[in-house]
Amino acid sequence: MTYTKFYIGKIGELILKGSNIKTFEKQLVANTKAYLKNVNARVSLMAGRLYVECDDEAQERVEFALSHLIGITGWAEAVIVEKNIEAIKQEVLREAIKARDNGAKTFKLESRRSDKSFPYDHYGICSEGASLAYNQKILDVDVKNPDVVIMVEVRDRCFVYSNRTKGLRGLPVGVSGKGLLLLSGGLDSPVAGYRMLRRGMTIDAVYFHAYPYTSDEAREKVEHLAEILSGYGLRIHINTIPFTEVQMQIKKKSPENYTTLMLRLCMMKAANMLAERIGASCLITGESLGQVASQTIENMSCTESMAEYPLLRPLVGTDKEEIVEIAKEIGTYETSILPYEDCCVLFSPRHPVLRSTVEEAQKIYKELEVDDLVREAFEKREIKLFEV
Known about the structure:
15 strands; alpha/beta; 9-stranded mixed beta sheet; 6-stranded mixed beta sheet; about 40% helix
């Protein structure tokens, strides 16, 4: 098979994994292949580099894959040249001309030589490799703040590339177990899910729907957020649990200022059931300390008292500006701000309790007599799969 395009990706944190690095590398290759299962491409990994070869028709899909692939620090389309300095000089010249035509004024050449039999060291590759482009005055040299960096890597083969794209870093999805994300239509929970994906965790999601108090558009909004996250996590099941009866019972029997907190406890109860059913090892929420009334340290302690699995809060120390920035980067922001409110917002009390105790919250929860309704809602859940 002849391929016309070649991409090189640099792995980062995986290098630190010592004797079990092969497990991480194997997962990274498997994830890459999963993105490219329907296109003509070949994936391999050697000595800290991920290689993807493809034909022209697969280029767009390969670039989507590399821009969403968790576990690499950067990637670029590269050219394979003969392993001699003249071939390197010619390709650096071509890269410099392309950069100039795109508006660059200055360049810098960097190199890495893994093949120690190559007759030029790092300094020799840089000085000789850049000579044609410099002598022909294609670009000026600026080693401190260049408009473009051209990279030469001399390995088993010789690669030349520029315009490196920053990768997502992190650990390959699938090396850190499985978590259950409590996904709402807001800004926070999708970002929390993304952060756990970057730590190598596979995630499924649960959404609590209170029709007709929350609209079908609100549900579609959350499903779209799950679909976006599947672009990073490869595949995500979203479980929609009908929570209307549960919320009506809370509204009927709970003190008004406790309704939001009681809803959180009921969600934890249902999430425990789902985590057991799907084999998840933890629960994930988008809570950020002090952001809203239910997220004071006292109320978060009450919520956690209902969890039967470790409760991870990857955003606990972040502020809203940081969360918004990440949401924009990963593509969830525009969906999250659509004006379709979830059940938490619609049933919020005017003056919610700020500092409950675990004992008081558990006492009120017991008086709700809501466990059977939570179980019935769980059994009526609907499941949808999103995958790349």
